Amino acid sequence: MNHPFLDLWNKPSRLVVGLMSGTSADGIDAVLTRITGYGLSTKVEQLGFYFMPFDDPTRQAILEICGGESGGTREVCLLGTHLGRLYADAVGKLLEQTGVERIDLIGNHGQTVYHIPEEMPYLNTTIRGTLQIGDPSFLAERFGCPVVSDFRIRDMAAGGLGAPLVPYTEFLLYRSETEDVALQNIGGIGNVTLLPAGCALEEVTAFDTGPGNMVMDALVSKLTDGAMSYDDGGRLAASGKVNQGLLDWMLEDPYLAKQPPKTTGREYYGKEYVQRLLSWGDVPLVDVLTTATAFTAQSIALSLRRFAPRLPARLVVGGGGSRNPTLLAFLQEALPEVKVQIQEDLGLDSDAKEAVAFAILANEALFGVCNNAPSATGAKHGVVMGRINL
Fold it and tell me: Taking the domains of the chain in order of start, what are their residue ranges?
């Protein structure tokens, strides 16, 4: 009897879809790639990208469950099934847009609804955990190909934080023999990957730098009475002023001083954090937004100055934050010695970057290749992340 993956292993290249929905809970990024090889021989070509926004009720349901204070097993069950169907719809739209009828593999990150990277007391013991929902069975049923999902928990079982996961793929795609490169993703949370010149995988370090767009998005929603969910083009932040006192207070955040490996999320920078900003002093709301935008930039700069062995020659920014010129200007101001670029400066797609990463991680899992970066997550050893649904 042939192994179910034999045909895929023997193909010169595979059509792989990557799916990502992040902590901003704004929608689903779906990318179609052609992947040749695996491991250090990996080559990736992006063939199409589709973004499917969540409607307001879905986004609110995700955010409420992410807070950890509402929703029970019934709600998680229903939302997980609902998201599974939405992921399948997003892939259907992507394939319709690209004219592709059949794909070989899908890698789906799922929607993180709770992440506990540090040990906490539970049932007379201590435990860490992570939960991504959005059942992959709907993808497998609709598209008839293997689906790799639920990546993070395998790294945690090996002693890692379950994050960040993208550094392994950045090592494959972005490392340079001649210069230090840093990759900064600014989604809901900011995370950076440090690639020293000519590095091996065990020399790669990565960690969450702090909030990316998450705090800004919450402030924009409040500032516009819910009419806007993010600062389009950074225009609102550009209209305000940085309050230095508030910024200095934000920069005292103990997370920023914590040594890597480290990871954070909505549990730390969610509603309660935003409320503390709003109650800090008598600061106009638009100035709080401008200050929070400057803080995201400063937290990234501080992270590089504190934890990089040396400042990189280039900082390549991806994710939604790369679309915010006000944020990028603050970032370049905070790092005058570093060339700040976006993915498009390299001929790549900022919006698709993380979805491409999960296409690659799925391809690695297909070949049984360890696809975490223990030096980034703190895992005791390399593991093959991802559960495969046939």
Answer: 6-166+352-389, 167-346
Cβ burial of 13 (10 Å; 0-12, 13-18, 19+) is: middle
Q: Are 49 and 386 in contact (CB under 8 A)?
A: no
- The string of pLDDT tens digits covering residues 380-389 is 999 999 999 9
pLDDT of 1 reads 61
- Which residues fall within 8 angstroms of residue 259, CB to CB, at 6 or more apart? 307
Question: What pLDDT score was predicted for residue 67?
Answer: 80
Q: How many helices (H) and strands (E) does the chain have?
A: 16, 12
Which residue blocks in the chain are alpha helix, DSSP H?
6-10, 56-66, 73-98, 137-143, 152-157, 167-174, 214-223, 235-238, 244-250, 254-257, 266-269, 271-278, 285-307, 325-334, 353-366, 374-377
DSSP state string for 328-366: HHHHHHH-TTSEEEEGGGGT--TTTHHHHHHHHHHHHHH
How many whole angstroms separate alpha carbon 113 and alpha carbon 324?
A: 26
CATH 3.10.50.40 fits 6-166+352-389, yes or no: no
Tell me the β-bridge partners of 50: 30
Q: What is the DSSP string of 70-88?
A: S--HHHHHHHHHHHHHHHH
The total number of residues shown for the chain amounts to 390
Residues of the chain with pLDDT under 50: none
Rounded to two decimals, the pTM is 0.88
Q: What is the CATH number that goes with domain 167-346?
A: 3.30.420.40
Query: What pLDDT does residue 76 have?
Result: 94
